[in-house]
Amino acid sequence: MTTEIKVPTLPESVADALVAAWHKKPGDAVKRGESLVDIETDKVVLEVPAPADGVMGEIVQQQGATVVSGQLLANMQTGAAAPVATVAAPSTVDNKSQTSIAVAPSAQKLMDEHHLAANQISGSGRGGRILKEDVINHIESNTTTAVKTTQPADNIMSTSVVGTAANQATAANEITALDHAGRIEKRVPMTRLRARIAERLVAAQHTAAILTTFNEVNMQPVMELRKKYQEKFEKQNGVRLGFMSFFVKACIEALKKFPAVNASIDGNDIVYHGYFDVGVAVSSPRGLVVPILRNADQMNLAEIEKAINTLGEKAKSNALAIEDITGGTFTLSNGGVFGSLLSTPILNPPQSGILGMHKIQERPIVENGAIVARPMMYLALSYDHRIIDGREAVQFLVTIKDCLEDPARMIIGV
Fold it and tell me: Model-level pTM greater than 0.85?
């Protein structure tokens, strides 16, 4: 029986999506629940699973195609009598003599990735055995030849698509060209997520009056508290006590005192949110994403750490759902994990504030008239000056500093 594979229903705010990658090709055996294709939106990647056991049939929408909800992606044959032979994948690679030529395992893997047959490559090993180096030389030689023979010398933007029919969906979106000096360049279209990030950041720069104020915080009290209770905390809660939970708690205390930082502009209105949905910016294979801690004010330190770990793992595996990254009233961005000492974070619209955390570094400071070394961190608050005055922004950041330098303040609420 033929079963249609269609684009799942996209979120209401998403008009269309991109076919990111097919995991099966025509003729492949498929098990129920196995991922067939990834559909990339400007927010998340959706996996389309197989509805039943069967054999992959015709792929209607190739990698790189733009699709909408309910559109036909492919067909598959389900049931015990699925006609495997009738849906075999067409191939432009001549595989004759493939098994009669000795091929090194590392070379075979590379050949499979580039859809090459053994009779296309001259082996330099003993008895004509194909080595990995032979495959690399073959690929580089063909790529260079294709570029040089198809590029007019007076047009550096002319294109040459490199690749066989089997990987043409990817290669068609990549443009290899020569610059004015004859050097190779490659153009790759932005992913949906990267394009969306670019669009939102440019919009933020154009529409919001963004200012940044700075301060520094002595992290020694928090570090001593972590060191004292880390073992008991982890044993009791099954999660390590990190710095981020302290910062989330400190931000919530500051947001309660200065509600304008937790607000947003909607037309001519200011919307003051009666809840605290805190976004935590994390790096993923697709780019920067900001999963949301819903009602973070109702979480304790352990719950915050667990939620951050869960969202971080989902981001790394491209498993974030649309509800994980939509909304949010305030954002934290920790550039310190990458070594950043100081930066000016940019707003995540329609939010009005974002806190930038940075690298903890020992610096000399004055305490009680004496110069001492302390683990210091620079903090940066970027805010929308349209609804947040400079006084509020500075006091907001000072509140965070006070909470972190005396963590007991967060416990007793002063």
Answer: no
* Residue 342, Cβ density class (10 Å: 0-12 exposed, 13-18 middle, ≥19 buried): middle
Residue 181, classed as helix, strand or coil, is coil
Chain-centroid distance of CA 395 in Å reads 33
The runs of H, that is alpha helices, within 214-353 are: 220-237, 244-257, 301-316, 322-325
Tokens for 235, please give them. Answer: 């044993």
Q: Tokens at residue 195, please?
A: 């394009």
The residue among 314, 280, 319, 315 whose CA lies nearest residue 296 is 280
Beta strands in 157-232 (DSSP E): 175-178, 184-187, 210-218
Question: Is 389 labeled as catalytic in the residue annotation?
Answer: yes
Sign of CA pseudo-dihedral 165, 171, 175, 178: negative
* Rounded distance between C-alpha atoms, residue 95 and residue 326, angstroms: 49
Report d(CA 276, CA 330) in Å as an integer.
8
Would you tell me the crossing angle of helices 132-150 and 105-113 to the nearest 10 degrees?
30
Catalytic residue among 42, 266, 389, 406: 389
What is the C-alpha to C-alpha distance for residues 334 and 244, in angstroms, rounded to an integer?
Answer: 9
| pLDDT tens column, 92-133 | 444 434 445 777 766 776 777 777 888 888 877 666 778 766
Residue-wise DSSP of 71-115 = -EEEEEEESTT--TGGGPPP--S--TTTTTS-B-HHHHHHHHHTT
Half-sphere exposure of 92 (CA within 13 A, CB side): 8
Catalytic entry in 16, 94, 384, 385: 385
Distances (CA, A) of 199 to 205, 348, 385, 409: 10, 11, 21, 40
Element (H, E) at 141: helix 132-150
Examine the residue annotation and report whether 23 is marked as an active-site residue of this protein. no
Assess contact for 275 and 252: CB atoms under 8 A. no
Give the closest residue to 39 by CA, choosing from 324, 322, 323, 328. 322
One-letter identity of residue 359: K
Measured CA to CA, the distance from residue 376 to residue 361 in angstroms comes to 5
Which of 187-196, 321-330, 387-396 has the largest mean confidence?
387-396
